[in-house]
Amino acid sequence: MDCMYTYHLLNRTYEVQKFCIWFLAGIFQLLTYPIWQTVVQGAATSCYVALHPNLKGVSGKYFMYCNEYATSNLATEPELAKKLWDYSRNLVKSLRHS
Q: CB–CB of 83/89 below 8 Å?
């Protein structure tokens, strides 16, 4: 009898958790819907930068919504770039050996 009651409580707890996650996901989607993009819109900038003839040879620039934008000062700081590169390299090395 105790096992059955425990199973029932665990099942109810799981159902409540599932509902809460679904409910919170729904609220999140509702609040962020205005900034969503379709697949085509999301791929547009990548395709534009990769294929547009006027951008041949362009490198190190930041593009968003098919337009070039200025980068922040942090994005052009060589010391920070080196730290990020070293961290990324060490992370990849550690993943390969796992």
A: no
